[in-house]
Write a structure and sequence with these properties.
Blueprint (H helix, E strand, L loop, with lengths): L1 E6 L5 H4 L19 H4 L4 H16 L7 E6 L6 H14 L4 E5 L7 H4 L8 H5 L9 E5 L2 E4 L8 H5 L2 H11 L4 E5 L8 H5 L5 E7 L5 H13 L4 E9 L6 H20 L1
Parallel strand pairs: 1-8, 2-6, 2-7, 3-5, 3-6, 7-8
Antiparallel strand pairs: 4-5
Helix pairs in contact: 3-4
Length: 263
């Protein structure tokens, strides 16, 4: 199933330009990891993230989805941006959200909140820190466990009982836990992390992901019995969807902006 679309349409350019100064046409390429759902809540990209949450809410009606990893086939598809914005939508709905950065090779989540990457999950797994020492407050209703020290053996660390114990402990403290992990085609980390989760959100970029890579990643998910909750397509261009959809989104955006100005 397609769990959501994050658009690259012309109607969103005005909303995107202040986030993507180098290329206003790209919503997934977000080097500063700014959270559009907070900074421009009525924009089409923000609404796309809210629709993604609704899709996941429907899925969790039968089985609770509390811990989810956000994964992509290769680097640069927008998985971290999707994770941050999805979490922000849960937080604005009153849910207690925890981000865990398990991309031990290239940690990034701390940058979104301008935090230093000190004392994190890698320190905990190495025995240098306690669980309550690695949780940082990031935003209203949002906490973060950053990566911390450089892990000498990331794959071994991710498969440890200590990490399972940590995630199980956090289940009792948070409504939603979102885990950032490395791309599935680069290392095996995502397959290992999936054992700790209730499902995987698979991010595919309409501009970056090659068809073969997308299929290969799905093959890895299937081979390892990884539950894929859905696919989130980023950088969707008008020719990927009907033009009427984009016209309707443009009308909605104008209405939302007008309503706000009148109030």
């Amino acid at each position: 199933m397609i769990a959501g679309f994050i658009g690259n349409n012309k109607s969103a350019h005005r909303a995107e330009v202040k986030y993507m100064k180098k290329d206003k046409n790209r919503i997934a390429h977000n080097p500063d990891y700014r959270i559009v759902t907070t900074e421009d809540p009525t924009s089409p990209p923000a609404e796309a993230f809210r629709r993604l949450k609704v899709s996941l809410d429907f899925l969790s009606a039968d089985e609770k989805l509390q811990v989810m990893q956000v994964c992509s086939a290769v680097q640069g598809e927008g998985k971290t941006t999707v994770l941050l914005n999805l979490g922000a939508v849960y937080a604005e709905d009153g849910k207690k959200v925890l981000y865990i950065d398990l991309d031990l090779r290239r940690p990034r989540l701390h940058r979104a909140f301008k935090l230093e990457n000190k004392i994190g999950v890698a320190d905990y797994l190495a025995g240098y820190a306690k669980a309550d020492e690695i949780v940082k407050h990031a935003a209203p209703n949002i906490d973060l466990i950053n990566c911390g020290m450089k892990a000498p053996h990331p794959t071994t660390a991710l498969g440890s009982q200590l990490l399972k114990n940590l995630v199980d402990d956090m289940r009792g403290k948070y409504d939603v836990i979102l885990i950032d992990c490395p791309p599935v085609l680069t290392v095996t980390d995502a397959c290992i992390i999936s054992r700790l989760t209730d499902g995987t959100i698979y991010v595919v970029s309409g501009a970056v992901t090659e068809k073969g890579a997308a299929k290969e990643a799905m093959g890895i998910f299937k081979q390892n019995n990884i539950r894929v909750l859905g696919c989130v397509m980023t950088e969707v261009t008008p020719n990927m969807r009907t033009s009427s959809y984009y016209n309707n989104r443009y009308k909605y955006n104008n209405y939302a902006e007008k309503k706000t100005s009148e109030n």
